[in-house]
Amino acid sequence: MKKILMVLLLLLVLVGCKENEPIETEEPTRVYDTAELALLAEMEGSFNFFYEQTNTDETSGGYGLINDRYNSNATLASIASVGFGLAGLPIGIEYEWITYDAGFERASKTLDTFLALDHYHGFFYHFLNKQTGARAGLSEVSIIDTALFIAGAITVGEYFGGEVKDKAMDLYERIDWTWYLDSNNQFFMGYRPESGFGGHWDFYGEQLILYVLGAGAPNEAYRTNKTVYNSFTRRTASYGGGEPFISSWFGSIFTYQYSHAFLDFRNTEDEAGVNWFENSVNATIANREYAIDMNSVYQTFTANSWGMTASDGPKGYSGYYGSKPSGYTDDAHRNDGTIAPSGALGSIVFTPDLVKNAVLYFESIGGLKGDYGYKDAYNFENSTPWIAQDVIGINKGITMVMIANYFDNIVWEYFMQNENIQNGLEIIGIRPVESQS
After folding, report:
1. Do 152 and 411 meet the contact criterion of CB atoms below 8 Å apart?
2. Cα 91 from Cα 159, distance rounded (Å)
3. Does the predicted TM-score (pTM) go above 0.85?
4. Which of 192, 198, 320, 340 is least crowded, fewest Cβ atoms below 10 Å from its Cβ?
5. How far apart are CA 355 and CA 360, in angstroms?
6. Does the pLDDT value for residue 74 go beyond 90?
7. β-bridge mates for residue 76, sequence order
8. Structural domains of the chain, count
9. Is residue 230, in this structure, part of any structural domain at all?
10. SS3 helix, strand, coil % of the chain, rounded to 5?
11. C-beta of residue 342 within 8 angstroms of C-beta of residue 395
């Protein structure tokens, strides 16, 4: 990727330069180590999943919808996949995998689709038919998946500006975040027209982004406040003598990553002194330490084979894969020896050296790579090693976006410049450390 620097040329115009002094107009070539080269390849493979597995039939009702997974169930799209896919467009352009015009067209027309889709108070069904855009089965109207979609929309809105930003903000503005609140000022987890609301975001997890989006909502009538942010339980725990942190229910590592894919919490604190970035650093270290300690139970778990997270496993998909601390008594997680590469890769911004060592191990596993980089997961507990045949959109998404943030801050840079996001952070009391009173 070439990034032309205009700073020296501007200085030349303003103050002149010495005769015959060389003018440097490009950044020095970056030297990548072996693990970073593998990370770049994995980022490109993940990008290709989103770009190639998109419905580009403009005559259908599902233009821009992206597979929930590949290569099975090709008719099922996930709105979270679309959110990550939108966030990937600036990455693809900056790394010169696609043209600016191609990315602009994909973003603009995808947002047109969502402006026309069925919704409830601005929230979308989690799963859709990829061709028609209709609700898939009895899929729920999902607040967290809508949030991941709208985060991707905001990212491309800031990147492209103009009509793309207008469409992204129209989608954001019509979301009534207050509609999704229960009597305790906690967000519900899902809504089905047939049965109403279900579940509550009453514990820490991947939902941090909800509080920022809700508090910064462009429509003030639909805006939430600091009380909502402070409504969920914050259980502080630690593992193996490590640093304490606010833990999630299943201890699944993705819960410490997804909001961070878009929100740059570095060098920030809330009014209680919580630094959510450091919280994820400590959670990542605990996840790895737990894998090391459990090697006597699961031979797949080692110092370089860790990152227990929601993924496919030998018996199907499981959202329970995780590590201590979990729940209230450290027993909510479940494991069978399955490791998903996205678990470690999604923490590249938190613990880069530990993740790079894991990447070198992933590179040594025969059969782990497929059409779009690493397959979803592996498990070596039985005499015959198991490797997933599919990739899953959200796992590819966290992989792609976090690697891009590690190298260039691409998604962080554009998402964080949105004034509503900055306003939302201010309202709930998350501010740069130096500005805390």
Report:
1. no
2. 10
3. yes
4. 198
5. 9
6. yes
7. 129
8. 1
9. yes
10. 45, 15, 40
11. yes
Phi-psi region of 187 (alpha: psi -120 to 50; beta: other; left: phi over 0): beta
H runs (alpha helix) in 177-275: 208-215, 226-229
Residue 54's CATH number: 1.50.10.140
**Would 18 be classed as within a structural domain?**
yes
Of 289, 288, 295, 317, nearest in space to 380 by CA: 295
Q: Domain for residue 40, yes or no?
A: yes
For 151, residues 6+ apart whose C-beta sits below 8 A from its C-beta are 83, 87, 209, 213, 261, 262, 415
CA–CA gap between residue 225 and residue 373 (Å, rounded): 41
Q: What are phi and psi for residue 229, nearest 5 degrees?
A: -60, -35
| Element of type H or E holding 369 | strand 369-370
Which of 124, 47, 140 lies closest to 90, judged by CA? Answer: 47
**Residue 34 pLDDT > 60:** yes
* Cα distance between residue 255 and residue 249, in whole Å: 9
Per the domain annotation, does 1 fall within a domain? no
For 251, the token pair is: 């201890």
Q: 373 — phi, psi (to 5°)?
A: 85, -150
Model confidence pLDDT, tens digit, residues 170-198? 999 999 999 999 999 999 999 999 999 99
Of 11, 151, 127, 140, which is closest to residue 65 (Cα–Cα)? 127
Owning domain of residue 209: 7-435
